[in-house]
Amino acid sequence: MSLRVYALQERISVGQGALIRFPENRRYFTNFISSAGFLIVTRERALFQTDSRYIEAAQAAVPAGIEVRETRGTLEADTLRELGIQKLSIEASHTTIAALRSLEKICAGIEIDSGDFLDTAVGDLRAVKSRDEVEKIVRAQRIAERALEKTLAMIRPGVTEREIALSLDFNMLSTGAEALSFETIAVSGENSSKPHGVPGDRQVCAGDFITMDFGAVVDGYHSDMTRTVAVGSVTPEQRKVYDTVLAAQEAMLDGLRAGITCAQADALARDVIEQAGYGAYFRHSAGHGVGLEIHEPPFEGPRSQEMLRAGNIVTAEPGIYLPGRFGVRIEDMAYLTEQGIENLTQAPKELLVL
Question: Quick one: average pLDDT of 298-324?
């Protein structure tokens, strides 16, 4: 039986079942990728069901101890009764109202737990990464860093934001990434004041800041990094903003450790930016967890009392965004250990003027 399934079973009561259908959660517990299927876990058993398209592959890939059965694609009440389930916990954050109503019809006589039990239990398990998971994220990060090196060589006045994004994408996919972590962000000049701006046909000009936020996927695991570079020259104000963001990020990385809250982690960076007079221009949280999803627990925000733990991989990504003028963001990924952190990002952060 998968150790991950055992860990979930320890949180489940007698008579309780956990229904896992969200693709990343299914992959986490079964090590199997498919567009259909669901896993049912009770205190004593684990059953993975999928349709005829995937049954042969599932039988070969799903870990021993998890029973694999073919289904026509729907959950059946007989299966729940066979497993002795009196209360069925579902992934509330991934369940639509229509899906809940369908479950209510199937599960007549069985209590449906649509609270946060299962989301919290699975989120807690996924948030603490194994060494194997860390290695996959590091491999994805190295691919992204090589893509950045190649892309920096093509940036010059006249190149468009879209061309920069396409260069990053091509270089990640052509050097080992199975997918992109998300739609690559490459924004320049006044567009860099938009934290999640969309690359367009704007041509880079001398004096621009260019912010690039991108990542690669390896074996399902994501990387995430952001770098801001300048073209030609920078003004004293641009340098001050860049230096402030870099100081905030370094303060956050220096102070990150297991045992502090996510709000405390956020404050490590936010306090530096506020003290420099730019607090109103840091308009997002300081970081988030990374793994099978690009954004997953823990979330480092100013109101989160969730505790950081050894094994978490989180980003440190403060930014300052001056509307209509320019913006700066710098992002690394940190792996929390019992001793401190291991920075998984190796790309230089000193202000680069191309």
Answer: 97
Helices 262-275 and 236-255: angle between axes, nearest 10 degrees: 150
Helix, strand, or coil (residue 262): helix
Pairing assessment for the beta strands 87-90 and 16-20 based on DSSP bridges: parallel
Model confidence pLDDT, tens digit, residues 152-189: 999 999 999 999 999 999 999 999 999 999 999 999 99
pTM of this prediction? 0.95
Please tell me the distance from the alpha carbon of residue 248 to that of residue 219, in angstroms, as a whole number.
32
Separation in Å, CA 241 to CA 62, 115, 212, 247, 275: 50, 43, 17, 10, 12
DSSP category for residue 351 = P
Q: For residues 71 and 218, which has the higher predicted lDDT (pLDDT)? A: 218
Place of tokens 């479950």: 103
Cβ–Cβ under 8 Å, residues 327 and 211: yes
- Residue 175: how many other CB atoms lie within 10 Å: 14
